[in-house]
Design a protein that fits this description.
Elements: H1 10-23, H2 39-47, E1 52-56, E2 59-62, H3 63-79, E3 87-91, H4 96-108, E4 111-115, H5 121-131, E5 135-139, H6 143-152, E6 161-165, H7 169-172, E7 177-179, H8 180-185, E8 201-206, E9 216-220, H9 221-224, H10 230-237, E10 249-252, H11 259-271, E11 274-277, H12 283-293, E12 297-300, H13 302-310, E13 324-327, H14 334-343, E14 347-354, E15 359-364, E16 383-384, E17 389-393, E18 406-411, E19 418-419, H15 423-429, E20 430-431, E21 434-443, E22 449-454, E23 459-461, E24 464-466, H16 468-476, E25 481-491, E26 495-504, H17 512-520, E27 531-534, H18 548-555
Parallel strand pairs: 1-11, 3-4, 3-5, 4-8, 5-6, 6-7, 10-11, 12-13, 13-14, 26-27
Antiparallel strand pairs: 1-2, 8-9, 9-19, 14-15, 15-16, 17-18, 18-21, 20-21, 21-22, 23-24, 25-26
């Protein structure tokens, strides 16, 4: 199928000559560094206008179409009162419309607020009110939840413009909502030429909120648009590192309400690659599109890798075009890591980071991945990027030597500006330029960063520190165990005792005591679970992280004891 904007191009064609003259003085020349997200469509629309930028549900959008669509959106947003620093909220799944919106917000100088489409109305209302978004763009399927949320937002803080994405029949029929596509086509495809600087905020991404109310992390253009040459810096020390060149075909199924989904997509768009956009993670659709479009690069959380490997279509799928899979977002079991390396026909790179530092800070090189799991580096998060500094400190703030566990601190020029209107919360995590991650880990003699667990998730049992990830790895080594999560529960004798929640593989079984003994043969006895509960599934957030707070609320018995 041809360019989606091929229809009705006469309006754009009549303006094309004057538009070229008007923006020529601000357009970076081809090959010049892209400084902001607004520059991405500008540069590539001139360098290769007809190249496919996005493929979404079999529709193709060229870089020229993306640039012109972004111009129209920017003009519409400006007409609605969006200017530098004004928030525009998006409540929906991954679509081509989202990436056009992102580029349009960037060209208008605004800030995009991502809202998790799985949230309830009250949670959506909180983010809308907290962010003070002037515009809300929502999927048609989200309109009912959005309407309920808007009722809870104070009148003075409600968005002035409501837009519904993608054939929004229900949305268009709802009073006050406009169809996003028709709305954007009413404005000229003319670059508004709003000055945007690399250190301007482009994203306000709300933290997952596993404890307390979520906070909006302010992320700048610079944090997500790597300056030219950074790939080459890594490649100098790692010959297997992939330097992006625009020939990539990239799967984008990681949710765009999370920073990972955005940074991942921007890596490809920055290089001039082609993105195959999926609304959400769906194994069968992924297998089909890898073969159909020759997808070469993908990013996954461990839960996604697990789902693909267990899918009945895996062995018959044509995965020959894959070159790299990047993975991260939550701890990965060594057994899953090894299986993925053995069965996928591509290289793997693990990444470690978080929203507040603008994406990733460390990576585990492809060459360190051993399909048999014998390389100790397989248990590491990886090496810090050349522009990132790492420290590990104790509870008194003193630096710890190699191999000793403490809190991991990061310093990088991609660090967030801060939490939106939360100076106290910002000061708690950023001190003297160092971001306190809340992750417990250590640095080994080779300089690899190891993440043991969250500091707050550490279990102190009888004065001994127990890290859930270590116990979970031991549980997952059993052939009957599909998933495992470990929490601390109250114990009069030990202070806390170790409790496991396990999901078994279909058709397999194991007795509780048998599994406990299995773990005791692999790790210290005091670390082994005192009790195991078998469950049909584990609660996870959108990025695949286990929600231990929910597990503690469900499975923590009062006065639990351990035989040790």
């Amino acid at each position: 199928m041809g360019d989606e904007f091929a229809k009705g191009r006469s309006i754009m064609d009549r303006r094309s000559e004057s538009r070229e003259r008007e923006v020529d003085h601000i357009q970076p020349s081809v090959g010049q560094s892209i400084a902001t997200i607004a520059d991405i469509p500008r540069v590539h629309a001139r360098a290769h206008p007809d190249k496919t930028a996005l493929i979404f549900e079999e529709r193709r959008f060229s870089y020229r179409a993306l640039d012109e669509w972004a111009d129209r959106i920017a003009q519409g947003l400006i007409a609605a009162g969006v200017k530098r620093g004004v928030r525009v909220a998006h409540f929906g799944q991954n679509t081509a419309h989202y990436f056009a919106l992102l580029m349009g917000v960037a060209k208008a100088g605004g800030v995009l607020v991502g809202i998790n489409w799985r949230l309830a109305a009250g949670e959506v209302a909180y983010i809308l009110a907290d962010s003070e978004a002037r515009v809300l763009v929502a999927d048609a399927s989200m309109i009912d939840v959005a309407q309920e949320a808007l009722k809870e937002v104070p009148a003075a803080s409600r968005p002035a413009l409501l837009l519904a994405i993608e054939g929004a029949k229900r949305g268009v029929g709802t009073p006050g909502w406009n169809d996003f596509r028709r709305w954007s086509e009413a404005f000229p495809a003319r670059d508004p030429l709003v000055p945007v600087a690399p250190d301007d905020v482009i994203y306000q991404m709300y933290t997952s909120g596993t404890t307390g109310r979520p906070k909006g992390a302010e992320i700048t253009h610079h944090a997500v648009i790597a300056p030219r040459g950074r790939d080459e810096m890594i490649a100098e020390r790692d010959p297997l590192w992939h330097v992006w060149n625009g020939e990539e075909v990239q799967l984008v199924q990681a949710p765009v309400f999370h920073l990972t989904g955005n940074v991942w997509a921007l890596i490809g768009l920055h290089a001039g690659a082609t993105l195959v956009v999926h609304r959400a993670f769906a194994p069968e659709a992924i297998f089909a599109d890898i073969a159909r479009y020759g997808i070469s690069h993908a990013i996954m959380v461990p839960a996604m890798l697990h789902a693909l490997l267990r899918h009945p279509a895996f062995d018959e799928a044509d995965l020959s075009s894959l070159r790299y899979i990047y993975y991260g977002g939550s701890p990965i079991a060594l057994s899953l890591q090894c299986e993925a390396v053995r069965r996928f026909p591509c290289r793997f790179i693990q990444i470690y980071g978080m929203t507040e530092i603008g994406g990733s800070a460390c990576y585990l090189p492809a060459g360190e991945h051993d399909p048999e799991g014998r390389n100790p580096a397989m248990r590491a998060a990886g090496l810090a990027y050349p522009w990132v500094e790492v420290r590990v400190i104790d509870r008194e703030g003193c630096d710890l030597p190699a191999g000793e566990i403490g809190e991991i601190l990061l310093k990088t020029d991609t660090l967030m500006r801060g939490y939106w209107k939360r100076p106290e919360a910002t000061a708690e995590v950023i001190r003297d330029g160092w971001f306190h991650t809340g992750d417990a880990g250590f640095i080994d003699e080779r300089g690899f960063v190891h993440v043991e667990d969250r500091v707050d998730d550490m279990i102190i049992s009888g004065g001994e520190n127990v890290y859930p990830a270590e116990v979970e790895d031991a549980l997952l080594a059993h052939p009957a165990v599909n998933e495992a999560a470990v929490i601390g529960v109250p114990s009069e004798r030990w202070g806390e005792a170790v409790q496991a929640v396990v999901v078994l593989r279909p058709g397999m079984s194991v007795e509780e005591q048998e599994l406990i003994e299995f773990v005791r043969r692999r790790i210290a006895r005091y670390k082994a679970p005192h009790a195991i509960t078998f469950a049909p599934s584990l609660p996870r957030n959108a990025t695949g992280k286990i929600l231990r707070r929910e597990l503690r609320a469900t499975y923590s018995p009062a006065g639990a004891e351990s035989t040790r």
